Amino acid sequence: DPSAPVDPGEAEDFLRRCYTENPRLGPVEPRLAIVRAQVAATGSYVHTTDELAHGARMAWRNSSRCIGRLYWRSLMVLDRRRARTADEIYSLLVQHLQSAGEAAIRPVISIFAPAQPGQPFARVWNEQLIRYAGYRTEAGKTVGDARQQGLTDVVRGFGWQGKGEAFDVLPLVIETPAEGLRLYELPERAIREVPLTHPEYGWFAELGLRWHAVPAISNMRLTIGGVHYPLAPFNGWYMGTEIGARNLADADRYDMIPTIAARMELDTSRESTLWRDRALVELNRAVLHSFEQAGVKMSDHHTESQRFMAHLRNEEKAGRPTPADWSWIVPPMSGGLTPVFHRYYEEMDLRPAFYLDDEAADRAQGCPVKRTH
Amino acid sequence: DPSAPVDPGEAEDFLRRCYTENPRLGPVEPRLAIVRAQVAATGSYVHTTDELAHGARMAWRNSSRCIGRLYWRSLMVLDRRRARTADEIYSLLVQHLQSAGEAAIRPVISIFAPAQPGQPFARVWNEQLIRYAGYRTEAGKTVGDARQQGLTDVVRGFGWQGKGEAFDVLPLVIETPAEGLRLYELPERAIREVPLTHPEYGWFAELGLRWHAVPAISNMRLTIGGVHYPLAPFNGWYMGTEIGARNLADADRYDMIPTIAARMELDTSRESTLWRDRALVELNRAVLHSFEQAGVKMSDHHTESQRFMAHLRNEEKAGRPTPADWSWIVPPMSGGLTPVFHRYYEEMDLRPAFYLDDEAADRAQGCPVKRTH
Ligand code: HEM
Ligand code: HEM
Description:
2 copies of one chain form a homodimer.
Chain A: H1 8-21, H2 29-42, H3 49-61, E1 76-80, H4 86-101, E2 108-112, E3 123-124, E4 134-136, E5 142-144, H5 149-157, E6 172-176, E7 180-184, E8 193-195, E9 210-212, E10 216-217, E11 221-224, E12 227-229, E13 234-235, E14 238-239, H6 240-247, H7 257-263, H8 275-294, E15 298-299, H9 301-317, H10 326-329, E16 353-355, H11 358-364, H12 367-372
Parallel strand pairs in A: 1-2, 14-15
Antiparallel strand pairs in A: 2-13, 3-6, 4-5, 6-7, 8-9, 10-13, 11-12, 11-16
Helix pairs in contact in A: 1-2, 6-8, 7-8
The structure holds protoporphyrin IX containing FE (2 copies).
């Protein structure tokens, strides 16, 4: 429960670690005394800028599902704790996307106000800052991202009108205690997109596929030393398979494999021709090729796996465990070809951490609204 | 410990389940009385043929790592508990391979004598009945299956001379309490093999790749109702990826991906061309194509995943949990394309079961011998 008072043990544990890892912050004892007093008096405490930044980096380092953790120290942390109104939040989210997406993509997190004991807090309903709408058609099919149908219904209920096309960026749904729900369209300058072409197949461009450059998860709660930040959107760069082997490939997302196989004129009469696998590889080649051509940073699953192996070695040298979730770390295609496949990992819930609350997951699917209808 | 006395609780638990699942076996109570008396007197008890057969099928059904469990009822159980000498065991293993490999491949298990409390027992060192030797060369490379280098060293120490080629079938290493270690060459009639060709690439045949038709694991212990069968080799048919995405692809096995990519003239200058993934798909097409051409039963990972989903539904209908290990169930290529990827499973250690003892794993690597050198 993000609105519960801070657990003093968790605060102390975090601060000790934070100050041990950063000797330049000085001795932790005086800081602990202050924090204990703050927590006793108010149920919470206020992180210094350094604590906030290092805490966010630790949370990334502790993300068991993330293969991209080698560069955890490089996370750019934007302290947005003062923002209160939906307008303020919106303009800072636009700034986030812009600073993340300029030139080479850089890992950025914007940290908004923490939850206060017993108080309601601001949040964004969208699971990522940029996501494409999904429209149910009369024929029972979907135009766009089927995963976003729920949220698309919600925003349409609030009067939003999409173009009804496959790649309409959804508006941001920002909820603040004072203003309730407000919808905001992202300006074009905040949305970098890459149209997909294939290095060999000319027809690929005719499919009209595209994807956005910056994956920015916006509905996970960041917990640092017992303080909960319910609005702390973060982004890295994409690993190609997230788009090519999941978003555009999954049967309950864009489901492009049968279409691509048809254009490739593959024998789809039986599974053993591996037509699915062949179409999958070409889709992923197209994704990597297109981002490369557009000069948008993206990594492939082989490179990112090697980096993760380096991360494991680094962390071992630093005497720290690296919690990891095999089923998320191993890429969704050619798993056995990557070094991350051939070993097991420790599973542990270390903090600071990012959590997806059930309610937040429901909101991103448009569920609470549907329930009250 | 396979030589420990039978746990009466485990015996009772198994028998109750076995008789409940097979009403035609009659009431379990009289049988329980007999078994309790046998265990009290001798530390063990003797399974009836029906108990043995159903126990083995339950062990398959409980194999969390096995995607092929839909047909668990069809397991053909060969009761080989009377065999004692290495010669007898050998000729029954040859029979096993023959009955498994004739025409369509069928799932078979041969169950040899159980371990008796405090007594040594017979076993086979090889991890599978058919495996290819691996020879270290002076250049520090390997000819053959690098995973079998340890066992290859052992059998060469016993005077076995392989041809030094990439696909030399290893002799069986049979250990009995009375005779110690004995080596047996498998006769040709027991070894069905498929030379690999590609549906389109003529040059593929020139690689000289082949694989055997029957995967028969021979070093796992079968435990039924507290009785341990240390020698109970079993086989199914191959799923193509076991050969195409692991045995022939893994860098520490046959490592064929770079060779195939070179023959395909792929751009291997950077990972993002996905040359590994492309070579992998073609290798796997070759495997499936060649087995199909040779009339040897094999399944692809899409079909086997669909079957496993059917198995999950069947078991749920039967009111039984299906323990499963995600990282083993999801195929090593195109994971995200298979329905088994998109859910979680219960992990449980249900019995009857197959276990790989550490000692058995070591022996298959030739370790105990190396240690005494
Ligand atoms: C720098 C480049 C990065 C790469 C290549 C990367 C890669 C990935 C990938 C492939 C996943 C799995 C996504 C999925 O299957 O849905 C993932 C998950 C995750 N990553 Fe990263 N990541 C990066 C940066 C970051 C950053 C900056 C953070 C936080 C500060 C982060 C935190 C997480 C978390 C919390 C998850 C789990 C998400 C969930 O549970 O849905 N990652 N990452
Ligand atoms: C009928 C066709 C079968 C298919 C297609 C099949 C498929 C598979 C596959 C793909 C694996 C993973 C192998 C690996 O990654 O190394 C596996 C593991 C396993 N299977 Fe099956 N299987 C079949 C029959 C059987 C039978 C008949 C048994 C036992 C009676 C069995 C018991 C097991 C066990 C115990 C494992 C785990 C092996 C280990 O831990 O190394 N399977 N199976």
